[in-house]
Design a protein that fits this description.
single chain, about 280 residues, alpha/beta, Rossmann fold, 6-stranded parallel sheet, two-stranded parallel ribbon, 12 strands, about 15% strand, globular
Length: about 280
């Protein structure tokens, strides 16, 4: 299969490229400087040259708080841009996969969200991701929408790196305890996405690390597996006074038969820390 990855220089796009190549596919990847998803002519020209069988749209506005200040900017990339990519893929008879987010939900449930649950984003970022889902599904009949959450991986800044950095200079770290979700290792997710591309199971899918935890529990596991003696203090979301509201509960599970499941988040974290140490060792 010929696969074009947009947003290929980001944390997930980087791993999707590698996973697809490892699975024997012919892969072309482009960062924002090469293909701007908000430019229909640029996207269309690129896909006409590549003639892919599938397009993976990992291009995204990921600054959740920044989206509150610049909702139009977030919507242009995550919403309108998603439609541009899906339409251009359809024009060359290619499947499209749009990566979405747990933030399309309001967090009001107490059991896991499945694909058929009612969406209700509470932030500009969440609204832009939901708009991207709708635009992608409307523009291409062969469309996969994959919601995931709390991503961490080797090719971008993430919560794990932040905790390790803070823990290396501080004896105590304050972490939110009243937001619960599914930490997801991008390497595991990337292989799941590539597997999904090989199917015709079009529509909405949930694909996140197995199990769930709070940011506080996640931080404690990071310090434990990193053998760092750091006291983890818990805080409420309100204490942090973040600009964008976050869903208090955004645990994702799939209600689809034969769903692609990922390893539990603890295994993803352990694998990521090994990968991180290996990279640091090779760099020194």
């Amino acid at each position: 299969m010929r696969i074009t990855v947009l947003g290929a220089q980001g944390m997930l796009g980087h791993d999707v490229m590698l996973a697809a190549e490892n699975e024997g596919h012919e892969v072309h990847g482009y960062g924002h400087a090469e293909v701007d998803v908000t430019d229909p002519e640029q996207v269309g020209r690129r896909l006409r040259l590549d003639r892919p069988d599938a397009v993976v749209n990992c291009a995204a506005w990921t600054d959740v708080d920044g989206a509150e200040d610049e909702p139009d900017g977030a919507m242009a990339v995550n919403g309108t841009g998603a439609g541009v990519v899906a339409e251009a893929a359809a024009a060359v008879d290619a499947k499209v996969l749009y990566v979405s987010s747990d933030y399309v939900f309001d967090g009001g449930k107490s059991d896991p969200y499945v694909e058929t649950d009612q969406t209700g984003p509470i932030s500009s970022y969440g609204m832009s991701k939901l708009a991207g889902e709708v635009a992608s599904l409307n523009a291409n009949r062969r469309c996969f929408v994959v919601r995931s959450s709390w991503l961490f991986g080797i090719n971008g800044g993430n919560f794990v790196d932040t905790m390790i950095r803070l823990g290396s200079t501080q004896k105590q770290v304050l972490v939110v305890r009243d937001q619960v979700g599914c930490p997801t290792y991008t390497w595991h997710l990337a292989y799941g996405l590539v597997r999904l591309l090989d199917s015709d199971a079009y529509g909405v899918h949930h694909m996140a690390g197995g199990g769930h935890c709070s940011w506080y529990d996640f931080a404690k596991e990071i310090f434990k597996l990193s053998a760092m003696e750091v006291t983890t203090l818990s805080a409420t979301t309100e204490m942090f006074n973040a600009k964008a509201p976050r869903p208090a509960w955004s645990v994702l599970e799939s209600g689809i038969e034969h769903a692609i499941t990922l390893p539990v988040w603890q295994d993803g974290l352990a694998a990521y820390l090994d990968q991180r140490r290996s990279r640091e060792g090779s760099a020194s």
